[in-house]
Please model this.
Amino acid sequence: MQELGKAELNSTRIIRQDDNRVVIEKDLDTEYMVLSMGPQHPSTHGVLRLECITDGEVVVEAEPYLGYLHRCFEKYCEKVDYPGIVPYTDRMDYLAGMNTEMAYCMAVEKMLDIEIPRRVEFIRVIVSELNRIASHLVAIGTYGIDLGAFTPFLFCFRDREHILNLLEWISGARMLYNYIWIGGLSYDVPADFKKRLSEFVTYFKPKTVELQKLLTENEIFVKRTKGIGIMPADVAINYGWSGPMLRGSGVDWDLRRNDPYSVYPELDFKVALPDPKFCDIGDCLARHVVRAIEMEESLKIIEQCLDMMPGVDGFNSRVAIPKKVRPKAGEVYSRAENPRGEVGFYIVSDGKSTKPLRCKARSSCFVNLSAMKDLSRGQLIPDLVAIIGSIDIVLGEVDR
Amino acid sequence: MSEYFSNIKIGATTIATGMAITFRHFLNAVKRKGDAGIDDADYFKQVDGLCTLQYPREVVPTPTIGRYRLYNDIEDCIGCCQCERACPVECITIETIKTTADDLAACGKTSGGQQKRFWVPVFDIDVAKCMTCGICVSVCPTDCLVHSPVADFSEFDVKNMMYHYGNLSKIEAEAKKRKLDEEKAAKEKAAAEAIARGEAPAAKPKPAPGPMPEGGQAGE
Amino acid sequence: MSQSISLNTWSDALSGFNLGWFPLGLVIVAAVPLVFIALYALTYGVYGERKISAFMQDRLGPMEVGPWGLLQTLADILKLLQKEDIVPTAADKFLFVIGPLIMFVGSFLAFVVLPFGPAFIGADLNVGLFYAVGIVALEVVGILASGWGSNNKWALYGAVRSVAQIVSYEIPASIALLCGAMMAGTLSMQQFCVAQSGPYGFMHYYLFSNPIAWLPFLIYFIASLAETNRAPFDIPEAESELVAGFFTEYSGMKFAMFFLAEYGSMFMVSGIISIVFLGGWASPLPNIGSFALNTMTSGPAWGAFWIIMKGFFFIFVQMWLRWTLPRLRVDQLMYLCWKVLTPFAFVAFVLTAVWEIYK
Model:
């Protein structure tokens, strides 16, 4: 018997039995109220709708309703040729376009079996790590807003702006890059890029410290997130969680290390894990802290890549790009570590067409969000907001 | 009990730290970051201070590589329709009319010196649909189709987002079409006559000229 | 009292002035705080808050309307005036309309006992502090009326939260103020200021002259944040949780009423705290030898200046806190009130009593 939540506030007890059944005991005869949270709600991060059954401030159950941003990505892929899908993958997880592009391109490259120049691999890692920082900045900033702290949000966006400028300088676009192409990159990095990027790293390091002092270590913030929405490691694995969510539950799992791709095996970085002294393993604070640590690790990766990057400026990044993408008949699944977890593409080719027969995207947010019902049981409404924020959903990826 | 007091102490100190940070930013508000672009050497010089700009008057410069408004230089366009085929969102509409033999000089050459063999009466780009992915630019054989770094091209009427780049007016296009039909008819007639005379059939009209790598993001 | 201060001369003279049967003087006395609230809320309240928050967040803030965006609030008010006054069909119309009015009246009535300098006060009640504490709590009625009358689930949540919060925080706030009343031996707002004025300026303030006063001062400041629904205690309107809390359904001028009421009570609690612990209109500058800085900066006009500046300072601190801290949860709010502030308030009460007996 395990009691969930602080439901004793209005003498309601939500008790999970050993067989995972949930029993609600009440001293008072109270009525449930159905509260529709979203699709237009400040803290649902887009167009998610949560149908909450509430007993006073206590959420008895919250069920997410999806599909408000459904754009038929998978069906559309069957209509567009392989290179034309890349801009659509940008629009899946629009906060981490580079990472998704990379995952998709790796899948097609696996089918085509082509060799990628080393410099291209390094640039790919740099841009996707930059995008990981940008994405985590949004996650941390909006999490602050969810909990009522506005200032960290704007600090995060100020720094994200620099990253977006850098990426625009490389790729020509701020968010929807179409930079990583099948077999290469659309352009090589600009001449001064290395210098500017190392300047960014030196600029950004003190800012992370400031952010930590302002938000992560703030006692109110800690009190709001510590011990809230605890997800045990085994349940997290059963739900198929990945990324910072899974690491927040204390599972040492990172695709960059456990299923290495690109040049990650050559790089020295630490898989971010929460510190049990500072937070409870698996709670909202743990997930937040994992994101904060990952930003610093990404900075480290970028620094190493800058040192190790071979080749010269003016390198033709399109040398390995195939003239025509027509893979042999077969199927492939390729996955990569996105800021939100494992993003994977399962592609079936019939060997004749330049369009995939089937393209299935494994979205990390969608899987992470599926645990919402379990996490929300017996929480207060403010805690529900904290839990949604800690899952860090991007509805573009959830609905696709 | 000691936890109670230590909680109060931690709360007070962390709140004070946070307030010190925001106050430092408040004092730094006399400085402004300015509108240095990312390719300026002193982009990261200003670390503190206000970082927003007053948009219409102060603009963050877009780098020259910036992919924003799609622009077609019709003088260089050979009407190969590759961009139309490559576009994932089908925002480009092209109609072409083959030039007649006597019009080749009037049709002119591209800046690269390539003979143009098609009139392009309709070259419409619906920039409202365009998602600035840049695939059309990558397949363009004459580099006449480019994304310009002009980022702000908002309109009050969505119809104005349809950009027309065609190099012939409707009446001209009609005339060219008629001319082509006449030429075709004359050729067919000649061919029929030739067949009637028992000669080999004349060669069919050539396919579209110019380098035509097949679909996909062609490398340079 | 080292100085002879003639209290309430201006307001007494004004209230005696009648135009025929019409008590014009009284109307002017009433209009002064009203005009003050409106002006201050327009300038320092909304514009100042937007600018201060912007500067703390590395932004520019409003810049477009007028130089440095000075007329931005005026434009906003014009916009709010022109907006359609929407009353939801399912709303309880009477409560919906009366809610913002009660809130504004509650916040405005408290200004009766707020002295604008030694010479001007609406009514120098001998129970001024008691009256102020009581009348500020009238806002709860307005919040509950608007929250219930909106017939909106978010508004209802906001209203219920707000009632629980404000009623709870009355207790530590009142006890902390009682400490101040014990030190002064009066409840009259003017007498508070008189008791804390003297040739040594700020040395006469209770916060500096009394070794215990910082405790009730802090307790009242924290509790006053909660009473005015300011961050980190803004759970009744918590926008990331309850959309906009109890005023979710309001638009146009009714919405502006909530704003005015909020800024009015912000100034009121800042005024109370500066009167009880920081001498109100008494000048903080000391007389240094023969250089009579204190005497020079005392007087009716200077008094008004000092009390408004002190109020503005505390409002600045309130804004500063708001743009720094995350929001507390409901149960943490109650924990802070009942398990931290109330016990400490009682401790402060006893200590003040002991100090007052044996000093």
Notes: The first helix of chain C runs from residue 9 to 15.
